[in-house]
Amino acid sequence: MEKEDIKQQLDSIKDNVLNRVLVFVLFVLVFGLTISILRIPETGFKPIFAVHSSLFLLMLALFIFRNKLNISLKGGIFMGAMYIMAFSGLMSWGLYGFGYVYIIPATAVAFVYFNKRVGWILTGSSFLAVIAIAFMFHFNLLDFSPEKAGYMQSFPMWMNMIITLTLVSTVITFFWNNLFGMLMKTYLKIDEQQSKLKNINEELIAAKDKAEESDRLKSTFLQSMSHEIRTPLNIIIGFTDMITQTDDEEERKELNEVIKDNSNQMLKMVNDIVDFSKIESNTIHFHNKTFNISDVLTEIENKVKKNVPAEVEFIIHKTDLQLTTDRERLFQILYNMVDNAVKFTRQGKIELKCFQNEKHLTIRVEDTGIGIDKHFQEKIFERFFKIDSFAHGAGLGLCLSKTMANIMGGDIKVVESEIEKGSKFDFTFPLN
Description:
Blueprint: H1 3-38, H2 40-43, H3 46-64, H4 71-93, H5 103-113, H6 116-138, H7 155-244, H8 249-280, E1 289-292, H9 293-304, E2 312-316, E3 322-325, H10 327-343, E4 348-356, E5 360-367, H11 397-407, E6 411-418, E7 422-430
Parallel strand pairs: 2-4
Antiparallel strand pairs: 1-3, 4-5, 5-7, 6-7
């Protein structure tokens, strides 16, 4: 919340408190004037009652026009009325009349409605004035002489003191209690608004971070695609030109195979990008049907085995099991896992195994490839992340496979991996 808003809130509180106090002060003045008028035959202090009557009319006018005056003017008038009440009593009664107690609400108004400097100046000045008046009475420069002898020891005098002290203390208590209560409510409101602003700021920071991350990923994606698309495309164009320049059927066949392999790489890359875009926009669809997983494993075996190096033994342990899910997505996930193993295995073996229990089917792909450092075993499922920057592919395969596995109710994780000894990946899938 801005400082100006907080100042407006505090001014509103002060205004509301002063309006409430004015009602109570009017009651005090009416009550006090009534008692004072009844005591005129005993005291004879008619001028002071005229002053108090004028103050009552002033406070009544202040209350009537309270919504048309600014807070500083109202506070000043109220403070001035309290000082007049205090010093008119002091000048007439001396310290006997307890008039000085009106100085307390007056200085309280000075502190609350103005500032500390004004408050301390008025407090000090009031203290000095009370001492000066006391000395003036002491040296008979001022004189207090009631009409009725013995009034100072009478019951009405002591009742007057008690009533005055009670009323003034009630005014002060009422003032501070209302001010404290309204300040607490405003503080809670400000605190609530600040909490909301904090939450909004956190959301904005998160959105900013997300936007910056998205921008970084876009740059990474463009850099990766620039390389990954141009490389197979250059091979396709170059080898296509070479086909037109040779009549050797065997050579033409080899060139065609290279062109076909690079075309498939580009097609897979484009398909991965399209699928990832659909996942990001929440427009990807799954079409469930019943099939035998053995057929999917056979299809993967036929598609992958031609790319497996001669030094690598490729084994798929097939299982006869009926599944109901999206066959194409399941094939895509398993193919990405096996293709990833082939990409990073130069000798040893690649093995696919199936395990099942009552609830889940687990398909494990083991290889004796380069392995994955433990610090990268979670990062390999992030988009565009590549352990080997020279390996072909956009770095979307495992990320896309894990995301689709999660959507299908399953998961992919690294079970075990060690540098230069190989890796084990598990794809766990619910049977129901």
